[in-house]
């Protein structure tokens, strides 16, 4: 907050929101947010998204499989 005003902090790319996406690249490189989302078409097997929908569920549940 700045005084009595709420301030949204921008991420490193200047955006006010960050996509919930994580991507693993060759080696040990890890991408998060917009950069991970941009490469998701080229690297779908190593890109995670929509994981927040699984929080609180059991692994055995049909939705998790």
TrEMBL record:
Output one GO MF annotation.
ATP-dependent protein folding chaperone
SUPFAM superfamilies xref list: Actin-like ATPase domain (SSF53067)
Gene Ontology biological-process entries: endoplasmic reticulum unfolded protein response
Using the record for this protein, list the coiled-coil segments as residue ranges, or answer none: none
Q: Which Gene3D superfamilies match?
A: 3.30.420.40
Recorded superkingdom: Bacteria
* Keyword terms of this UniProt record: ATP-binding, Nucleotide-binding
Keyword field contains ATP-binding: yes
One of the Pfam families matching this protein, by short name: HSP70
Write down the PANTHER family for this protein, in alphabetical order: CHAPERONE PROTEIN DNAK, HSC70CB, ISOFORM G-RELATED
Instruction: Return the similarity comment.
Output: Belongs to the heat shock protein 70 family.
Q: What is this protein called?
A: Molecular chaperone DnaK
